[in-house]
Amino acid sequence: MACSRSPSQCDPAPLPPAPPAGRWPLPLSRRRREMSSSKEQRSAVFVILLALITILILYSSNSANEVFHYGSLRGRTRRPNLKKWSLSDGFTPILGNKTLPSRCHQCVIVTSSSHLLGTKLGPDIERAECTIRMNDAPTTGYSADVGNKTTFRVVAHSSVFRVLRRPQEFVNRTPETVFIFWGPPKKMQKPQGSLVRVIQRAGLAFPNVEAYAVSPARMQQFDDLFRGETGKDREKSHSWLSTGWFTMVIAVELCDHVHVYGMVPPDYCSQRPRLQRMPYHYYEPKGPDECVTYIQNEHSRKGNHHRFITEKRVFSSWARLYGITFSHPSWT
After folding, report:
1. What is the pTM of this model?
2. Which residue of 11, 79, 155, 179 lies most exposed, with the fewest beta carbons within 10 A?
């Protein structure tokens, strides 16, 4: 039949170009599958990149306040011998122009732990050659369990006023006591209103009392020791060294053998029955629970905290090295 339109309109429609030799057009279903697979791959790459970016952001924001984890550096750094630390360089006399007394053969550290209540350890503690106590832990009313004898009392800067306000307890009761005060140099020795001057003024009423302050150089040594033992910089990890840390190191310096009463092992709180409650201090029966105190301080991200559990791990590693034993509870 003849075409009634123009010749160009009557020409047959051109065929699509043929595929290259040896290739045939893919079926529609296969092309859809390949397109879908390509989209999934791109999505997976995007998710991975997003996850990596998120991790980097979280790390950078939390690195300064990370949860404290103990990582011993033993084997990678050379451990100092605490018994060779110089006593004359480490302690500055506050009351009395003397040097810290020479070494004791056998020392006991009486902690402030409520584990000592009911132990009747008083007579054993009284027989010790040298007895070391901490901060404002009293003996009045508790002597049956903790004794009275106090050769050395290690006092934190935060406990100075609590000790000075009770001379009847901490000076008159045991006049032979040698006080060792520790604290940041800016608090202990600042020009105006320093704690050293406060202690000196209070000491005027007790001319026979001996008192020393941990020197700034020795304070730095304590920090360096903490970093070497734990792998953590004290300031960057927002940690405060505890009075127990200072007391243990001082005891190792002063004593040939050290026996510690009342200190729990580092894994104690992970094994203690949950319903059991133990006051943190033997003289504060309604005070905070010891394990709550330990765990909160160990894992806190913000602020400055004592790393009690980490310190106990370090003490455990020192036990054989420095002749330290623990009892009530017993552990090594």
Report:
1. 0.76
2. 11
